[in-house]
Design a protein that fits this description.
This is D-aminopeptidase family protein. This protein is α/β, with parallel strands linked by helices and 277 residues long. The protein is built from 6 helices and 12 strands. It folds into 2 domains: 190 residues, Dipeptide transport protein (Rossmann fold, 3-Layer(aba) Sandwich); 54 residues, no CATH class.
């Protein structure tokens, strides 16, 4: 049993402000330590549940937030970018299931620090008629590779938004969102205990099988992506890409043959958006 743990930071207990998720200040240094500790709790729970091999993917920002010298030595760490599979980097090694730790709700929602891929660029991402955030997009990428999501952790808005996408998964609520930058959180220690218990249960349930076993989230090709940008200027920029079609002032669309191709296109557009910052 080989698990990929994809770890973001906005859903980590105690994280509520943008300074906590941006390098270069003391609050970020504390938050990245909490992020590393929640990843370790997931590692510990997965092994207790029967997992034999663990990959931990640093899935926030520049993908180099987790503290390698603080990581449980039984896991290996996926760091740095660019990488084709983004937040699912590591699946190319042949994993059986995915944990999403510290995830957040999609853009335009009331979840803590909610956004989709890039808070500056994207207002909405709709795939084959379904509005998806990072969890849905990357869960579909994993599903295309035959791998289910079996655990998700983050705030209540993230869980409510995502639960039906991954039936059979375990969920751990680390905080309650009162808005983009406020809410009520578990202590880091309590969050780690809950994540370890959820991870152990997720692996045990997956290995046990049966009717409630998590299954891959698959979106059949062709993939149509309708993308609403945060501004018309961004839509102008993105339409320099010749395969994108302008629908209106802030809405674009493109069609492709796989979720991996769709995610790679979105990540490339997100990188382009920094030209206007």
């Amino acid at each position: 049993m080989k698990i990929l743990i994809s770890t973001d930071i906005e859903g980590v207990a105690g994280v509520f402000h943008a300074e906590q998720v941006r390098a270069g200040n003391g609050e970020y240094e504390r938050a990245r330590a909490w992020m590393t500790a929640e990843a370790n709790a997931a590692v510990q729970g997965a092994i207790a549940g029967g997992a034999e091999e663990i990959l931990v993917n640093d899935s926030h920002g520049g993908f180099r937030n987790l503290l390698p010298d603080g990581l449980d030595e039984r896991a290996r760490l996926v760091l740095g970018k660019p990488r084709y599979l983004g937040m699912m980097g590591g699946l190319e090694e042949g994993c059986d299931a995915v944990f999403m730790i510290g995830y957040h709700s999609r853009s335009q929602g009331r979840g803590v620090l909610a956004h989709t891929i890039n808070s500056f660029a994207f207002a909405r991402v709709v795939i084959n008629g379904m509005e998806l955030g990072e969890a849905g997009l990357y869960g579909a990428l994993a599903g295309e590779m035959g791998v289910p999501v079996i655990l998700g952790t983050g705030d209540d808005v993230f869980i409510e938004e995502t639960r039906d996408t991954f039936p059979g998964a375990e969920w751990v609520q680390t905080k309650v969102a009162h808005g983009q930058g406020s809410g009520v959180t578990l202590s880091p220690a309590a969050s780690r205990r809950a994540i370890a218990a959820g991870a152990e249960a997720a692996v045990r349930n997956f290995l046990r099988g049966g009717d409630n076993k998590a299954v891959p989230f698959r979106i059949p090709a062709p993939i149509e992506c309708r993308l609403q940008t945060q501004s018309a200027a961004l839509a102008d920029l993105f339409c320099m890409w010749p395969t994108l079609e302008r629908v209106d002032g802030v809405t674009l669309r493109f069609t492709t043959d796989s979720m991996q191709s769709a995610v790679r296109t979105l990540n490339s557009l997100a990188a382009m958006s920094f030209m206007l910052r």
